Amino acid sequence: LNLYTQTLDWGTGSLETLLQRAAHILSSVSGHIALVTIPQNSKSRLYHLQLVPLTKQQVMLVMVTDSYYTQSVVLDFPEDQSLPEVDEESWQRELQILSNFLNQKLRGESLMTLHCLDWGELDREFNNYAEFLRSILQELKVRSHSYAPILIRGISEALRQPEFSQLQQVQMLMQLLEQEQEQLFPLIFELPDCPEDSKRVIVRIGTENSLEALNVCTLITANYCKGDIPLGSVGLLGPTRMLYENAIAMVEATADYLSETLST
User: Fold this and answer.
1) DSSP state of 166
2) N- to C-terminal Cα distance for the chain?
3) Model confidence at 1, in pLDDT bands (50, 70, 90)?
4) Rounded distance, CA 152 to CA 150, Å?
5) Is 54 helix (H, G, I), strand (E, B) or coil?
6) Lower Cβ count inside 10 Å, N or C end of the chain?
7) Is residue 203 within a helix (H) or strand (E), and if so which, with residue range?
8) SS3 label, residue 225
9) Is 161 helix (H, G, I), strand (E, B) or coil?
C-alpha cells in the first residue's frame, strides 16, 4: 500500500490516469497481467419502473434512470407461479399496483446499491408475486452491472512464462483480452450479495474460470469501492503456479488504495 501512496498522486490527473498508474504498478511488481475496470456510473439512480403486460405469462419491465436512460426487458412469469384468475383489465390493474409498489420502494436508489436492499420485505408484502418480484430484482441487478472498459497492463512480460508457450493458448488469451472484454468483465467485476462481501478477494484457479481461454490461468480479483458502493475491480491474471499469498496481498493492497482514495 505504501508503494501506491508514494508513487500515485490523486491530485495530478484524472481518475482514468490514476487507474492506469495503479495497473502499471501492479503488473510491474507482480510480473502478471494486471486488470482494472473503469468505474461504472455510480451516480445513476432509478427514476421510474413500469410493468407492461404482453401476455398473461409475459411482462415487459421498463426502467428509466434519473438521466432518462431507458432499458427494457421481457420477463416470463414463473410457470409454477399461481396467477390470479382475472380478466385483461384487472390484470393490467394488478401490474400497475405492482409498478407503484416497486417505484415506492426503489425510486431514488443508486443502481449500484440495488443488490444491497432488503428484498425479503418485498416478498412479505406481495407474497402472491414473490417469485416474479425476485426475477425483477435480479434483472435490475444485472442491468446495473453492465460492461465497462478494462485497463490491461503487463501482457508482454507475462506471456514469456512457460505456461504460455503454446501458440493456440496465447492466441485465445489475446483474443479474450483485446477483443472479447465483455465476456471477461463479469468474471472480474462481481457484485456481492451483501455489503460485507464488497471488498473480499476472489480466487479462481484453472477450470474454475468459466472461459476456456483462462483454463490454464489463475484469476485473482477484488472490488474497489466508494464507501460501501463497488465501483470497479482490480485483478491479476497469471499461471496457476503463481505465489498466491503475494498475489492476493498485491490485489488487496491495490483495491484498498483505490477505495481509500475515492472515498476521501
Assistant:
1) S
2) 16
3) low
4) 6
5) coil
6) C
7) strand 201-205
8) strand
9) coil
For 160-191, how does the pLDDT look when each residue is reduced to its tens digit (9 = 90+)? 888 888 888 889 999 999 888 888 998 898 87
| Counts of helices then strands in the chain (DSSP H, E) | 9, 8
Q: Which residue has the cell 420485505?
A: 121
- Residue closest to 8 by CA, chosen among 183, 263, 264, 261: 261
Neighbours of 60 (CB within 10 A): 14
Residue bearing the bigger pLDDT, 262 or 176: 176
CA distances from 228 to 41, 116, 188 (A): 15, 10, 18
The C-alpha atoms of residue 248 and residue 258 are separated, in whole angstroms, by 16
pTM score, whole prediction = 0.69
- Cβ–Cβ under 8 Å, residues 4 and 254: yes
Mean pLDDT of the chain: 81
Looking at the predicted structure, is the pLDDT value of residue 251 above 90? yes
Domains of the chain, earliest start first = 2-40+147-263 (3.30.450.40), 46-143 (3.30.390.60)
Neighbours of 199 (CB within 10 A): 17
Separation of alpha carbons 254 and 199, rounded Å: 11
